[in-house]
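re: ur question from yesterday

yeah so i grabbed the chain u mentioned. its 294 aa long if i counted rite. heres the sequnce exactly as i have it in my notes:
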Amino acid sequence: MTMRFLHWTILPALLLAACTARPAAVSAPPPSPPAPADPTIKIIPAPSSQYTAAQAKISQVIFVTMYTFDMPRGTVSGDEKFWKPVDETALDVATYDRLLRNGLRVGRAPLWAWPGMAKKVDREVVSYRIDRFTTFSGGDSLYVNMAPPMDDELLFTLDRHGATGRWYDNCQNRFDFSFRWEKHLDDTLRVNVCPLITVHRQRWDYFLSDDPIERRLVQDEYLWDLAIRMDLTADQFLVVAPSADADDPYRVGYQFLTHDGPAYRTEQLMVLARTPVPINHAHAATVPSADPQN
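ran it thru and got these structure tokens back, copy pasting raw so excuse formatting
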């Protein structure tokens, strides 16, 4: 009885000694201090969404220059030699034929051809105007006045159905321009040009008083059937001039691109290019560039 008691007394003591004799766990060494930063290395933060949006918008900026030359009637419209380097098939056949019948002649030419074409222009030009467009791809359209405001105007447009006439009061003839980069072609600008007539109307609203309220209304009448669409690379320019049918005073080419001069009638040649073209300033009087929106 005594030995059994002694055995149960010694056994817990041995177990306790074994637990206390177990070595303590080794703690991890303290972390080393960070290495000093290299002054030659600059950490650039990731661009914010606003920054990337601004960069994308800047890449869509478009710069285009348009030259409008005034010359005696028939200087380039009836000169086939002038039109020889111009690709008039850049438009589809139906659009090209419709423009011709309405007094407009349109084409696309390479920049290398301009010095030869400019010889006739420099010799006959009376005055010229330069309009510079700065816009975003697919942004708001811009317009250029082609004539001063008129009290009234009778205009006929011709299509495959015949002639359609319309009378406009208090109006002004303009060309509307819009630009955008062509997504499926490298470095190609798509130009859209449409003739329009801006009509100004006045209205007086009468109430229970003798002082009516005057309201001015402005309405743009687009001639969509005569819209021009052309793709231009950096080494090409657009040419717009009156055609031989512009002798009819009721057609678009006559009203938009020909005018009465001091002693003779003049015609206008429009050249639109992404790269500025050289001009012989000694042969013409420069007309100050007008704001395209005025």
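noticed a couple things. The mean pLDDT is 80. also The radius of gyration is 38 Å.
anyway ttyl
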